[in-house]
Amino acid sequence: MLRDVFSILVPDGTVESPLIWESSRFAINPRIVLAGTRGDANHIVNRTTIELLCGIVEACQRAGIEHVVSVFDARMARIFRAANCPFKIIGTPARIGKTMTYAGLFEMTNDMPARLDQVGGLPPVVLSAPLEGAGKPAAWS
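Request: output the structure for the sequence above.
Response:
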């Protein structure tokens, strides 16, 4: 999607590699997560958000993926920062419709689960079983 739909965000060319996956959807429905209470969804970093981020990191590490590239808006940038999930802005942010939109690169490093754990307090592994044919990451040995 970055290359085909959001190429305006990376005018010098897209980031492509067999070791990079693209995350094109990341969404938590705050009404479900908050069990009917209305909170400020722009600033909520809840357990479900952290668990989803941890699952992405684990799946990437199990598959040998080094980075995730994603398109996100300013609200998600704040959530990623609050979740201690660092990213590097690539290309040029642009307003798409009424939304300031970014392309970012996330490193799937061995320290990422610990960073997320500082906010989420989750167990060391959130995925229930290894991916088919994938080995255990060195960090989990």
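The CA atoms of residues 61 and 137 lie 6 Å apart.
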